[in-house]
Design brief:
With 274 residues, the chain is mostly helical. The protein contains twelve helices and two strands. It has a two-stranded antiparallel ribbon with strand order 1-2. α9 crosses α10 and α10 packs across α12. The protein starts with 15 loop residues before the first helix and ends with a helix.
């Protein structure tokens, strides 16, 4: 029987110069590695092994067909501290139960009902551009996409306007996301319990985030005629007779706000750029 083949590797990642380049411009470094070595590449950093998987069938093998064989990396430590045990960060039985509870909220018909709100927010943005931006002026498209997706998330997930009065909530989320990204990229990870300046800022942001989310959940539970948004769908979901606790709702809400906000804004920005 043939022994398993090892993926081609990039030994240059042992080079401290390449490591520094990876921090400065990771997209270019990863693109260069893929161009040189192919769709599945093994890289090493000290005693850790990393695989860059670009082939669509291989990605399907990992994420869909054999996901039980793989676990979240240690890079999820920071984002898990921010989001808790949501669909993005949880694993095993917790992930399976949460996925089962959340799946009905993402049925095609229910998502289609949210399209008018998305279209209205987009039209409002374009109308604002026409009023406020002179022809030919340069502006930050990514900032505009972040603003757009944050408002859409507020309308479709919470039936709330997050473009104005909840600006502090968005700022707190951005603080949390930057902290989590810094944690993932740090060679030496300082625990959240250590009172560094960044950790203090993160804890302050978490207090602001949790205060808003807890209030939204409490008000929604007390609402006799809740709106037909994603939060209501998540609260109505049942598995063997039981639904999500307030803590589970908090974690899933933050996960969806973040996923529907920052990631979607990045995708839209690159789409316009390309």
């Amino acid at each position: 029987m043939d022994s398993p083949r090892e993926a081609p590797g990039d030994p240059s990642l042992f080079d401290i110069q390449k490591v520094l380049e990876s921090f400065r411009d990771p997209l270019r470094v990863l693109t260069d590695i893929r161009r040189k070595y192919g769709d599945i590449v093994l890289t090493r950093f000290f005693n850790r092994r990393y695989y860059l998987v670009s082939d669509s069938e291989a990605v399907r093998h990992v994420l869909v067909e054999n996901h039980k064989n793989y676990h979240k990396s240690t890079n999820y430590v920071g984002i898990k501290y921010l989001l808790g045990e949501g669909l993005l960060t949880s694993e095993g039985d917790t992930w399976r139960r949460q996925r089962k509870l959340a799946q009905p909220a993402f049925h095609h018909d229910k998502l289609a009902a949210l399209v008018p709100a998305m279209a209205e927010c987009t039209k409002d943005m374009l109308d604002r551009w026409a009023r406020e931006l002179p022809v030919g002026i340069a502006f930050d498209v990514h900032k505009e996409m972040m603003r757009l997706t944050f408002r859409i998330v507020g309308r479709t997930l919470l039936s709330a306007e997050l473009d104005g009065e909840a600006k502090a909530f968005g700022n707190a989320l951005n603080v949390g996301l930057k902290w989590a990204n810094d944690m993932a990229e740090s060679l030496i990870r300082v625990p959240p319990s250590v009172p560094t300046r960044k950790n203090r800022e993160m804890k302050k942001a978490m207090v602001s985030i949790d205060r808003v989310v807890e209030r939204v959940i409490t008000e929604r539970r007390d609402d006799p005629n809740p709106p037909a948004d994603l939060l209501t769908m998540l609260m109505a979901a049942r598995d063997s007779g039981s639904g999500m606790s307030d803590k589970q709702l908090r974690d899933e809400l933050l996960t969806m706000v973040l996923a529907g906000h920052e990631t979607t804004a990045n995708t839209l920005t690159f789409t316009l750029f390309l």
